[in-house]
Amino acid sequence: MRALTSRGVLIADQPTTRLTLVRHGESVVTVDQVVGGPETCSGLSPLGFDQAACLRDRYRAGHEPAIDALWVSTMPRARQTADALNEALGLDVNVDVELEERRPGDADGVRWADYSERFGDFRLLDNPYRPLAPNGESQAQFDLRIGQALDRVIAAHRGTSVVVVCHAGVIDVAFRQLLRLRPTGGFWLSTKNTSLTEFVTDDDGARPVWRLVRYNDAAHLSGLPDKTEPAGA
To answer: Measured between alpha carbons, how far is residue 86 from residues 161, 184, 186 in Å?
Structure first.
């Protein structure tokens, strides 16, 4: 795509880099209402598998941009979503532990109902250096890890189209870093399971200007329930 510099000079065509972030399908830990870290995550719920299948079918129908590379977090809920999607893509799957959700440390496996009593309010925004729990990550540590991981993915696939199957927290960090927004606060994202969030840039420079094409595109989930109701609800 041809572009103009700040002085109105036409520059040569630059290849478009397309980054699409996919949140995993609904997970068992979400249904069970526990903190699902690396030690506890047991993969997708039945609804989560249905959501992943709908995402696969959306790509299989051929209405989405062609994908050149597929990356995924190591966590089972993301891996299972990526495996379903890859039935339509047929790509090598690149797995990166650094794309995991924010690491909860000692809160891994704790029921959300019990979290605040044991570790305090995890939504506090006034201290980005406060970990989720002992041995867990702070927001600042998470931001740095995800920023570096996405930077490596982007650098490896400039001028191509890459999908990263990951987590809601990862998508939040990508929003803030790619669009150069404040690192915490200001807004909350509510990213749907298996939804598509897409950024593009035609700038191959050191500080490319990214454009948000879409957020939370979950049209493929039409007809499915929004979530699995917890037992006893």
So the answer is: 15, 33, 35
